[in-house]
Write a structure and sequence with these properties.
Elements lengths: L1 H19 L5 E13 L7 E10 L12 E8 L5 H14 L5 E6 L20 E2 L7 E2 L5 H7 L5
Parallel strand pairs: 3-5
Antiparallel strand pairs: 1-2, 1-4, 2-3, 4-6
Length: about 150
């Protein structure tokens, strides 16, 4: 009996730690087609991510937009430059692969990004949303399916 009690305690402890350190629901689901760095690829301060996106609605952790084609224009977050640049390189490596990824966290407060129309000028970038890191999303997940099946309307 003691062994069962210890095992249950260990499982609960691990579950609590996992919940305590969770970054929260994904802020942006992305099907990345193209990535461009500014002012240069060597040391970018901005990233432009072109593709199809589903974003979390303002003030909600469970309401998301419909898929939108366009681009995200994002600025390097202060204090986390190296981490963000690593994620940006990962985004570039999956561009065009049809792998859906999630980025940012609804709970971080930085997940709010605006999907810009392809003909809109790139100015006033949103903050790059850190939180969950980049998360590969299974093609069977409902939001991934919506991105993969999206047709321009």
């Amino acid at each position: 009996m003691k062994l069962v009690g210890c095992s249950a305690t260990a499982v609960l402890s691990v579950m609590c730690l996992g919940i305590g350190y969770a970054s929260g629901p994904i802020g942006v689901y992305a099907l990345v087609e193209k990535v461009a760095f500014e002012p240069s690829a060597d040391k970018p301060d901005h990233i432009q991510i072109t593709g199809v996106f589903i974003t979390a609605e303002e003030g909600s952790s469970d309401v998301y937009s419909a898929p939108q084609r366009g681009y995200l224009y994002l600025a390097l977050p202060r204090g986390n430059e190296q981490l963000a640049r690593r994620e940006w390189e990962d985004l570039k490596s999956i561009a065009g692969s049809r792998q859906v990824v999630g980025l940012g966290s609804v709970w971080s407060g930085r997940a709010r990004v605006r999907v810009r129309k392809s003909d809109e000028e790139a100015k006033s970038p949103d903050d790059y949303p850190l939180g969950n890191g980049l998360v590969k999303i299974s093609a069977d997940q409902p939001r991934a399916k919506a991105l993969l099946e999206y047709k321009d309307r």
